[in-house]
Input
Amino acid sequence: MSDSMNLEAIIAFFKSQADDIQIINGERAAGIEVGQITFDSREVVPGTLFVCKGLAFKEAYLVDAIEKGAVAYVSEQAFQVDVPGIVVSNIRQAMPILANEFYQAPWQTVSISGITGTKGKTTTAGFVNQILSQDSHEKNAPQPGFISSTFNYDGVTKEVSSLTTPEAMDLYRMLATMRDHNVTRATMEVSSQALKYNRVDGVGMDIVAFLNISPDHISPVEHPTFEDYFHSKLRIFEHGRVAVLNEDTDHFDEILAAAQAATNIEKIVTVSRKNPGADYFANQLTFNDSQQNFIVHNAGEVIPMTLNVLGHFNVNNALVAAAIARENNIAWSTIQTALAQATSEGRMDVYKTSDGNITFVIDFAHNKISFEELFSSVKEMAPDNDIRIVFGSAGGKAENRRPDMGHVAGLNTDEIYLTSDDPNFEDPYKIMDEIEAGIREVNPNANVRRQMDRTGAIYTAYQDTMATGKATTIIVAGKGSEATIKIKGRNEVYVPDYEYVQQLIAFYEFTGKMDIIKKK
Ligand SMILES: CC(=O)N[C@H]1[C@@H](OP(=O)(O)OP(=O)(O)OC[C@H]2O[C@@H](n3ccc(=O)[nH]c3=O)[C@H](O)[C@@H]2O)O[C@H](CO)[C@@H](O)[C@@H]1O[C@H](C)C(=O)N[C@@H](C)C(=O)N[C@H](CCC(=O)O)C(=O)O
Ligand SMILES: Nc1ncnc2c1ncn2[C@@H]1O[C@H](COP(=O)(O)OP(=O)(O)OP(=O)(O)O)[C@@H](O)[C@H]1O
Output
């Protein structure tokens, strides 16, 4: 149980870790107990060891922390304050080391499955969590831990997450809470930022999964180059005993080589929809309005599977989740039960009018490969439908997504509605300019509308569909189930795409047919 540590013991520990540690006011450390560690002055209580870090850090935060009872600080620089200070050369490397010592290596009693990749982390982690939860339910065991971009569950509280992967000190605290509440298994999304900025340093994971890689998150605040992005993600193989790899991805050979080169990886397992030689091979894929069925071939067994989420890329995600579950010794029947009822909010959410005239597809896709997969799945679902798409792109990051998504949309439809998607501090119309440039490169005659208001853009696509009277699939991409839109640093509430679409369908069922009659 991590409840407190002696400050002198902490200082001695830091000194044992590196020879360039500088101690300020060390003589004042005698007899002081540390009951909490944090990097946020707003969380400080008496007895806290406060960590000074971050691009936006201010000395005022340290002064505030001391006023609230912080007994010492850790920092890359010394400050003129009365409490003892521990000065380190690299605060990002120091935070996981301190957290591991303070919380006594909680990962040793929690079997962690870490999932990384450009697309599919949230979906796949969600599938694994739903399988582990089903297994816990069947065994009347504590629910598994979950750390993801949607929510975190540490065995006690479920909270909406602000990062895909938390900062190290938050992560270790969550793992310690899991351990202290007899949670023995956890699933975690591991972002490239987390791997690059030392957030998961020292965390022993049992299983690690690599889904796919494609250029994304390239920007001054994320990764300067694709190489930096790719090599950050490959650092996942510093963790784990078993590696689960999706063969149906670009750069698979490099990913496999990195896993093979990692001495801590004892076993490599592969999944595929294309290579029958993979450890988990899926074929005979069929689907209806809401589910897809396929056969899994593994270790000589033939296992029928129903996945309650559409999108054939989700078959790969389900195969990775099944492989992780099997490495956790979970029965196939439990996996089948969980995946047949799996949900993945805002990802391939399909809403159809009763007469089949209009099919809305809500998806979280917001980069090149997810757009390609999305259009491919939508065309498979309703090959004879017209297609319209409503989307935008986030401000302040991953700028390459804009022309990329414009390209893919322009190649797949003439009917494109550009709108806002977390513009943040950027002008949404400037973002639309960059998307439209990508559209025009491949489809000069595309019919591109622009509407800042997202629900307005969806309504326009609906109205245009009504005017044609033709069976149409309207894709609404990029926000999934999100209920806020980031504008000028603030998360503004808006009607989530899937809620507004359901309102439109209700409106159509009540009045739509009359509209079509009026139009003719
Ligand atoms: C580049 C990056 O990852 N930055 C993260 C990092 O920021 P930072 O360490 O520079 O700290 P800061 O936010 O500048 O603030 C300075 C410090 O002042 C402290 N503070 C602040 C106010 C106060 O009153 N008192 C106080 O002590 C804060 O606790 C903070 O530690 O630590 C902060 C938490 O302490 C994170 O919020 C912040 O994420 C920013 C918002 C971000 O956008 N991160 C993205 C790039 C990210 O990490 N994305 C991935 C997903 C994308 C992917 O799939 O790769 C993720 O894992 O979420
Ligand atoms: N295996 C996959 N291959 C390609 N595209 C995928 C795959 N899985 C999901 N997608 C697409 O990517 C979108 C986002 O999926 P998900 O949120 O699971 O990915 P993520 O890795 O968590 O994304 P992010 O890093 O942006 O949070 C989905 O809505 C879907 O369009």
